[in-house]
Design goal:
alpha/beta, six-stranded mixed β-sheet, 12 helices, about 50% helix, globular, binds zinc ion
Length: about 300
């Protein structure tokens, strides 16, 4: 692709990537630099990381989280200001998770980063395969059970490894999809929570950050390819054709003929979520069962466990 066109940045090497929204042709090294620099700017724009923060990176084995681990390694290794540790959640899905656990383990040892694994089974007393067989109806979707458990598992893991920052690989496309899902389901409080400036959770004041929030998904994929980051080939057997994938396709088709449309939408969402974040006091409430922050008297994790255990 574009082999004959020179890089618009360095005017020196052949371009390998055309960035449609800016009209730039980029060579491999200028492309990689642009992604790492953009991540760095996002981190400082939203004060995501302070000097001395210990960063736990939630690494699933997918392209986003492995790329994030590499970018953070490059950004913080240079400065030697922050420790990084990779945490991986084992949902307990037979035949699926094993491959990614292996990929993560090998990638972390290549980067010389410690990898800790936490399982649903040890944290919640049941794994995904069990909870799927225990759910009372198909209205409880696999992704909603898994997503709720995963967020809590990451909180517990971060605390356990003594980190005060949890970084996840969510990108700009994920942000657009989450916003639309919240709008469609009427979950307006949640929109405020998605503002990228970190909220401090719990007594230990853990910050959740998304350093790739201003980067298109396709650019993360391209970064992963350029950096020879391994890909997981197995698909999650419980993955259902959710509304999320329809929204993803919708924005991709808009972007095709109107480049920059995703950025514009992202910037609008940024303004809306900031206003809602400042209006929202729901994070001050606590779950009656586990004491975790919750918008409702019983948090979604405890609620799911109650339904699954039928008590
Ligand atoms: Zn270049
Ligand atoms: Zn709870």
């Amino acid at each position: 692709m574009q082999q004959h066109i020179l890089c618009s940045k360095c005017q020196n090497k052949h371009s390998v990537y055309f960035r449609q929204y800016s009209g730039e042709y980029l060579c491999r090294s200028c492309f990689i630099f642009s992604i790492e620099e953009k991540t760095c700017r996002t981190i400082s724009k939203f004060s995501m990381v302070n000097y001395g923060d210990k960063i736990a990176v939630g690494v699933s084995g997918g392209k986003d989280s492995l790329s994030l681990l590499l970018v953070l390694k490059h950004l913080f290794e240079r400065k030697k200001t922050n420790d990084i540790i990779a945490i991986t959640i084992d949902e307990g899905i037979a035949g699926y998770r094993d491959e990614s656990l292996k990929i993560v383990k090998e990638f972390c040892s290549r980067l010389n980063i410690k990898n800790e694994i936490f399982s649903y089974k040890e944290l919640f007393g049941m794994d995904m395969d069990e909870s799927m067989s225990m759910r009372p109806s198909e209205k409880m979707t696999s992704c909603s059970i898994c997503g709720t458990f995963r967020r809590r598992a990451i909180d517990i893991a971060t605390d356990y490894v003594g980190a005060n920052v949890i970084a996840t690989g969510h990108n700009l496309d994920d942000q657009l999809q989450s916003f639309m899902i919240n709008v469609i389901s009427g979950d307006i409080n949640r929109i405020g929570w998605t503002y990228p400036e970190p909220i401090y959770y719990g007594t230990k004041k853990i910050k959740k950050i998304k350093p790739f929030i201003e980067i298109y998904e396709r650019e993360i994929v391209f970064y992963a390819l350029q950096q020879n980051i391994p890909f997981q080939s197995e698909q999650c057997p419980y993955q259902n054709e959710s509304i999320r994938s329809e929204i993803r396709e919708f924005f991709n088709s808009l972007e095709e003929n109107r480049s920059g449309v995703k950025y514009n939408t992202y910037n609008s969402i940024l303004k809306i979520s900031k206003i809602l974040k400042n209006m929202d006091n729901s994070l001050k409430n606590k779950c009656n069962i586990c004491g975790h922050e919750s918008t409702r008297p019983i948090c979604s994790v405890c609620n799911n466990l109650k339904i699954l255990k039928n008590d």
